[in-house]
Every structure is written in C-alpha cells, then in structure tokens.
Write a structure and sequence with these properties.
about 250 residues; 9 helices; Rossmann fold; alpha/beta
C-alpha cells in the first residue's frame, strides 16, 4: 500500500479536528443529514481518519467499519474505541482498492472530506460501488469544487459585500495551499471539476439522489459573511443502481 501523507501530521490533524472548525461542523452535519437513519445499517466509513464520522454513526446504531490508509490516524481511532467501545472495526486499506473487503458487505458507504486527498477518484468510486449492496447508498462531502480552486480567494468590498474570486477552475490536478498552517498546505489536495466528480460517480454505477450546499446562518453568518454568500462545501447522496462498467 502507498504511504499516507497524514501519518506525518496525524497528531496535529487530530488536535485540529477535535478543536472544532466551521468546515468540520458543516461537513458532518450535511453528511449525517444525507445518510438519515443509520440504525442497524452496516456502514463503511471510507477514509475514516481518526473515526469522527464512524463514532457518530455508531452512536446512532450503525454497525461501522472504518477504513483508512493512515496507520497513525487509525491508532488514534482504535485508542478512542478502546476507551469508549462502540463496536467499530478499523482496517488499514487503500480506498482506491479496498483489498481487505471481499464482496458486497455494506448498506452504505460514507466518505467525509476525503475524496480530495485520493489520487485516483475513479478507482475509489469503483471500489465503493463494489462493496455496497445494489440499491445501497454512497454519501460524501468535499470542499466545493466550483469555489475552492487552487487559484481562488475571498474578497471583501464595502460597496458590493463579500465574495470569492475563482480562477483556474478547469485546471485539474494536485496542488498545495500557500498556508503552511492548514491541512492543504501540509498535504495538498486534488482539484477536480464538478463535472468530473458527478460523471465519475455515474461511471462507477451510482445515480445522484440529492446534494447539499450548506449555507451558514445566524450568528456565524454575522461573524463570517463571506461563508453566507458562497458555499465552501458540497455534500452528495447517490444510490448504487448498477455494477461499474455495465452499460447504462
């Protein structure tokens, strides 16, 4: 299996996530809304990291298998499971292959803020389709590909209000932020267009059911008006309607 970049920043990343952030809170809320009732469901938390989503799903009654490439993040996830057992099984595996998962095992697959980290999107989605039952679901959240491009940034104008400048949308590939204190500055990300995400999803045998572009409101919107105007996240629910490679 390839090395995991997150192994190098596991402790820092875990502390950052546990400290709470608007992005993490928005993503988790949207993901859980799209998943709906998780009770008695067999769910794979794909690219689970330190188990944030896995533990929330288990608390809601799901039987969860968490899979991640990072051995260091899995150590943290297993430590939390030992301290507060919820029946979660964790496995080290590459999301692009899922070699440790044989056949159809899951009612659904969740993937929270991780598809941007995975080099081969098509392989990952084919693997997800292989392990989820026909009619099962795949729910994921990502930074919004239309507005979070490598060459984008916030602007504030007293006359027109806050907004975002976006450039280079059609230039796909790996990039790193120039912020050394952020996740994308430390491990980078893969930018892809919205069309690439949705078409690759369809090619893997999934049909789009619903999507959420969360808009912050209330006190948070007053504090961060730019996030009220432009969505920073996209969450998607799709259903497995056919095997990858079958004729449409």
């Amino acid at each position: 299996m390839p090395e995991a970049l997150y192994d190098e920043i596991a402790a820092w990343y875990d502390a950052s996530v546990r400290g709470g952030s608007l992005l993490t809170d928005l993503a988790l809320h949207s993901l859980l809304e799209l998943i709906g009732d998780a009770a008695d469901r067999q769910i794979c938390d794909l690219a689970c990291g330190q188990g944030l989503v896995a533990r929330e799903l288990a608390r809601r009654g799901a039987r969860v298998t968490g899979i991640d490439l990072s051995a260091k993040l899995l150590e943290i996830a297993r430590r939390d499971e030992a301290n507060e057992p919820l029946g979660i099984s964790y496995q080290r595996d590459d999301a692009q292959a899922l070699a440790t998962i044989g056949g159809v095992q899951f009612d659904g697959v969740a993937c929270n803020l991780a598809l941007m980290d995975i080099p081969d999107l098509a392989a990952c989605l084919r693997s997800a389709a292989r392990v989820v039952r026909p009619g099962g679901w795949f729910v994921f959240s990502i930074t919004h590909p239309c507005f979070q491009t490598p060459s984008s940034g916030w602007r504030s104008d007293d006359a027109d209000g806050p907004g975002r400048i976006v450039r280079g949308y059609f230039v796909e590939g790996h990039w790193r932020s120039d912020n050394p204190d952020g996740v994308r500055g430390r491990v980078g990300a893969y930018h892809r267009t919205l069309g690439t995400y949705l078409n690759t999803l369809a090619d893997a045998g999934f049909a789009l059911e619903r999507l959420i572009e969360p808009q912050i409101t209330g006190v948070l919107a007053e504090r961060m008006p730019d996030h009220h105007e432009v969505p920073v996240l996209l969450a998607v629910r799709a259903r497995r309607v056919r095997a990858a490679g079958d004729a449409v």
